[in-house]
């Protein structure tokens, strides 16, 4: 009866099909007559305005009695999440980009980085490490510059004084290397002229070392 009331023959459709938002494909309406944009998760729907079946969506009338009307939902009432116009099922793993991997959980999504966020400190064999983007590769990689390259790059790219605010970052000072007497503590910090991570050292002394006991005289 509904089909007979809403569907008219012959079909009269616009010459130009509608332009759909990203993630909403063109589908036939409920009468199988004209092409329309499929409704996405949470969008209103009815007999004519159908949901995107390729995403496993159906028109859910369970909330229609509350006056809110029917909306597109998953057929088995599972929760999902929408990212960049695409709907993912509960538990589905996806990659919005090559640098992160996400999983749809409880209507939201959790993501983890796929590129290592390690910090490479200067070493004798690599005194000037630098992280750069490599063409054709997703994750940046560390390279080791020579002293000449390092000085030339600083002369071109880094002014004598930084023109941008430096967000200070640093670890806590380590424990003193000596339990008594003079030792040294270390930390990693960017609090320097070029706002660059470096290992810093400072002298420290927990307490003076006790004096060595005098040698006992030999017993004759």
Automatic annotation (TrEMBL):
Which SMART domains does the annotation name? IB, TSP1, VWC
Hey, which family's this protein in? Belongs to the CCN family.
Entries under PANTHER family matching the protein: CCN FAMILY MEMBER 5, CONNECTIVE TISSUE GROWTH FACTOR-RELATED
InterPro entries in alphabetical order: CCN, Growth_fac_rcpt_cys_sf, IGFBP-like, Insulin_GF-bd_Cys-rich_CS, TSP1_CCN, TSP1_rpt, TSP1_rpt_sf, VWF_dom
Annotated SUPFAM superfamilies:
FnI-like domain (SSF57603), Growth factor receptor domain (SSF57184), TSP-1 type 1 repeat (SSF82895)
Q: What does this protein do?
A: May play an important role in modulating bone turnover. Promotes the adhesion of osteoblast cells and inhibits the binding of fibrinogen to integrin receptors. In addition, inhibits osteocalcin production.
Pfam families from the UniProt entry: IGFBP (PF00219), TSP1_CCN (PF19035), VWC (PF00093)
Ranges for domain IGFBP N-terminal come to 1-75
Put simply, this protein is called: CCN family member 5
Could you tell me which residue ranges the VWFC domain spans? 79-145
């Amino acid at each position: 009866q509904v089909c007979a009331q809403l569907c008219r023959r012959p079909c009269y459709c616009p010459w130009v099909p509608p332009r759909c938002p990203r993630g909403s494909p063109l589908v036939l309406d409920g009468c199988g007559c004209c092409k329309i944009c499929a409704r996405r998760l949470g969008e209103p729907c009815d007999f004519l305005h159908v949901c995107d079946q390729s995403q496993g969506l159906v028109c859910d009338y369970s909330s229609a009695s509350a006056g809110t009307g029917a909306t597109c939902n998953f057929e088995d009432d599972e929760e999902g999440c929408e990212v960049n116009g695409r709907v993912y099922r509960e538990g589905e793993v996806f990659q919005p980009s090559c640098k992160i991997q996400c999983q749809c959980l409880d209507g939201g999504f959790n993501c983890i980085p796929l590129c290592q966020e390690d910090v490479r400190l200067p070493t004798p064999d690599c005194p000037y490490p630098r992280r750069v983007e490599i063409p054709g590769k997703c994750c940046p990689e560390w390279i080791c510059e020579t002293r000449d390259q390092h000085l030339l790059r600083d002369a071109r790219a880094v002014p004598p004084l930084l023109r941008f605010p430096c967000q200070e970052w640093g670890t806590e000072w380590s424990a003193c290397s000596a339990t008594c007497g003079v030792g040294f503590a270390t930390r990693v910090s960017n609090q320097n002229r070029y706002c660059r991570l470096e290992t810093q050292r400072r002298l420290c002394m927990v307490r003076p070392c006790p004096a060595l006991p005098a040698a006992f005289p030999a017993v004759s």
